Automatic annotation (TrEMBL), chain A:
This is Cation/acetate symporter ActP. GO terms for molecular function: acetate transmembrane transporter activity; symporter activity. The chain crosses the membrane at residues 37-58, 79-101, 107-126, 153-173, 185-204, 216-234, 266-290, 302-324, 360-387, 408-427, 433-458, 465-484, 504-522. It comes from Cereibacter ovatus. InterPro entries: Na/Glc_symporter_sf, Na/solute_symporter, Na/solute_symporter_CS, Sodium:Solute_Symporter. It is a multi-pass membrane protein.
Automatic annotation (TrEMBL), chain B:
This is Uncharacterized membrane protein. Pfam families: DUF485. Signal peptide: none annotated. Keywords: Membrane, Transmembrane, Transmembrane helix. One of its GO terms (cellular component) is plasma membrane. It comes from the Bacteria. The chain crosses the membrane at residues 24-45, 57-81. Coiled coil: none annotated. It comes from Cereibacter ovatus.
Length: 554, 102
């Protein structure tokens, strides 16, 4: 196993080397920077360190429990950092600062929504999830319901979320690396995909967690430094910074008002729902709760994670306001039309070069890349576990699969997901990333979250209700996206959208919750009696942790 | 159902645990939701209040500062819950389990 790992790592370095050479050979392409040596050196250092970490983790990953949950031996603080790492994606870092740079306070609307979901996850879900589940959130959703149908539904819910999120991350990664490192898009996508497969197949959850922690620490310290260096230009006065931002932004005072995109009530409610409930349905985030030994540590993880996430978003917003003055007024970062070079999401990157020179630019670029790498690894692991633990071991083998074959299937699934992510990343090169992320969040909020939430709290939920309601959430979410402005108009080229709103969670979540309720209360089957009879035992375990899967000693 | 579960369900300490913890969790959730809903409502229905200068003169607007405060507030709320749940509630849960199994 270890030898295979080192061989593949060596092959990867060779691929990266040839990619660099190819990147350097093409100089005519204007959308691409010249090869950024400092950034690449820092990134290679990160890759080397994380591959070393993976080799260490590979030696400790022996059982399925090690592979899926790092044996449940991660502490609350470590897991808090890792959750924050999973959550602080490149889309959040570059997207939020870019949004503030472009529109002003709109960014805060998003960051507040993304943060307040966490206390609710803690009060309602975190400890119960830990008490009931073992490897995946489907363990919890199907605790007292019929395994085959609910596992299949949850696994597909998890897989669709993972794949949309993966595509978004891969496309983002390809573009970003092209821009930052001067690497070809295709090489960049392949590099990310291969590294992700290495981390996950060899190091499992232990490697994924530590990659996540490393990245979270780098991102938090990098952003802190970026804000401090930026504020120095304003004599460390936030007041002077904001005044300069108002003076220098084309919209002036209007950057302090919410823009029209969120002033429509239906849109705002849908967006708020998706931002708040989405995280509680993201499989790679939910899976993190099984890596800690007990409910106590699960609570601590959310406590630390909320602190890191809240702090990080304040930094991201501040970075946007800093960039309005320091980047937006500097013609070196703008094209002829006055637009930001490399697109709106590059505000934070340009700012790092402006305030800290090439070395800091290299560092922030490497951190942004590391961010993507860590997030895709978490996604791949949760997608693979949906295939191996839910579909293979529980649905197909009905729980009779051995630890060893289950792990093998998981590793194969990781490879398949990796290849798929690379292929889709190449196909969707020119797709809008934001819409994919919104779809992932929307699906998480309207399929995974309702089923999970009601299976924990509503004693009368039955298999039929969960299954039909979950599917209703799935189809209405996909329907709203396809018939809505982002796909129907922008992608398919029709004149007007059949479904007029860009945000749809209000409708799809209502469909899911309503469907689950209706098809549960009208369910008179034998199975329904079993489902309801299973609730008291589930309730005791979910409230006290009695019988919960514990940590495995190494 | 395992007999231990039935005993625990009937145990007054378990009932006390569930009702106390639920009351606490629901109260905190309602507070967080109320804060968030007010924030969103102001952004949608009263943008003028949202973009009002802080203290009348600052370049920072009320909405932005309140947004930051809500993020800090979310952290404080998780801290309050974690402290009480990891102490008092876990103690109750342990007693409820020990009392019925032993």
């Amino acid at each position: 196993m270890i030898r295979v790992f080192f061989l593949s790592a060596a092959a990867l370095v060779a691929i990266a080397g040839s990619g660099l050479a190819a990147g350097g050979a093409i100089d005519g392409d204007v959308t691409k920077r010249s090869v950024n040596v400092i950034a690449i050196a820092m990134f290679l250092f990160f890759v080397a360190a994380t591959l070393g970490l993976t080799a260490w983790a590979a030696r400790r990953t022996k059982s399925a429990s090690d592979f899926y949950t790092a044996g449940g031996g991660i502490t609350g603080f470590q897991n808090g950092l890792a959750i924050a790492g999973d959550y602080m994606s490149a889309a959040a870092f570059l997207g939020v600062s870019g949004m503030v740079f472009g529109k002003g306070v709109d960014g805060v609307f998003y960051t507040v929504g993304w943060t307040v979901g966490w206390p609710l996850i803690l009060f309602m879900i975190a400890e119960r999830l830990r008490n009931l589940g073992r490897f995946t959130f489907a363990d919890v959703a199907s605790f007292r319901l019929e395994q085959t149908r609910i596992r299949t539904l949850s696994a597909f819910g998890a897989l669709t979320v993972v794949i949309f999120y993966l595509i978004a991350q891969m496309v983002g990664a390809g573009k970003l690396i092209q821009l930052l490192f001067g690497l070809e898009y295709a090489y960049a996508v392949i590099l990310v995909g291969v590294l992700m497969m290495l981390y996950v197949t060899f190091g499992g959850m232990l490697a994924t967690t530590w990659v996540q922690i490393t990245k979270a620490v780098l991102l938090l310290s990098g952003c802190t430094l970026l804000v401090l260096l930026g504020l120095k230009h304003f004599g460390f006065s936030p007041e002077a910074m904001m005044q300069a931002a108002i003076d220098n932004h084309a919209a002036h005072e209007a950057i302090l008002s919410p823009s029209s995109s969120i002033s429509d009530p239906i849109t705002a409610i849908s967006l708020a729902l998706a931002l708040m409930c989405g995280p509680a349905g993201l499989p790679h985030i939910l899976m993190r709760f099984f890596t800690v030994p007990d409910a106590k540590e699960a609570r601590k993880s959310v406590f630390y994670a909320t602190g890191f996430i809240g702090y990080f978003f304040m930094l991201a917003v501040t970075i946007g306001f800093l960039a309005i003055t320091l980047v937006g007024t500097n013609p070196a970062y703008l094209d002829e039309a006055g637009k930001l070079l490399g697109g709106g999401n590059m505000a934070a990157i340009h700012l790092s070069g402006e305030v800290g020179g090439d070395v800091f630019l290299g560092f922030i670029s490497a951190v942004a890349f590391a961010t993507i790498l860590a997030v895709v690894s978490g996604l791949a692991l949760s997608g693979a576990s949906a295939v191996s633990h839910d579909l293979y071991a529980r649905v197909i083998k009905k729980g009779r699969a051995s630890d060893k074959t289950e792990m093998m299937v998981s590793r194969m699934a990781t490879l398949v997901l990796g290849v798929l992510a690379i292929a889709l990343g190449l196909v969707f090169e020119n797709q809008n990333i934001a819409f994919m992320v919104s779809l992932a969040f929307g699906l998480a909020a309207s399929v995974n979250f309702p089923v999970l939430f009601l299976s924990i709290f509503w004693k009368n939920m039955t298999t039929r209700g969960a299954f039909i309601g979950g599917l209703m959430g799935l189809f209405s979410a996909v329907g709203c996206v396809v018939l809505g402005p982002t796909v129907w108009v922008n992608v398919l080229g029709f004149e007007t959208a059949i479904f007029p709103w860009e945000q749809y969670a209000l409708f799809s979540m209502t469909a899911a919750f309503g469907g689950i309720w209706f098809f549960s209360v009208t369910d008179r089957s034998e199975r329904a009696k079993l489902d309801k009879a299973g609730f008291p035992a589930q309730f005791v375990r979910s409230e006290t942790g009695l019988g919960a899967a514990g940590a495995v000693a190494h | 159902m395992v007999p231990a579960h039935e005993k625990i369900l009937a145990d007054p300490r378990f009932k006390q645990l569930v009702s106390r913890r639920n009351r606490f969790a629901i109260t905190l959730s309602v507070i967080v939701l109320a804060v968030y809903i007010s924030f969103v409502s102001v952004a949608i229905f009263n943008p003028a209040l949202f973009s009002m200068p802080l203290m009348g003169t600052s370049a920072w607007c009320v909405g932005l500062v309140v947004g930051f405060c809500i993020q800090a507030f979310a952290f404080v709320m998780t801290g309050i819950y974690t402290a009480r749940a990891n102490g008092q509630f876990d103690r109750l849960a342990r007693e409820a389990i020990r009392g019925t199994i032993a």
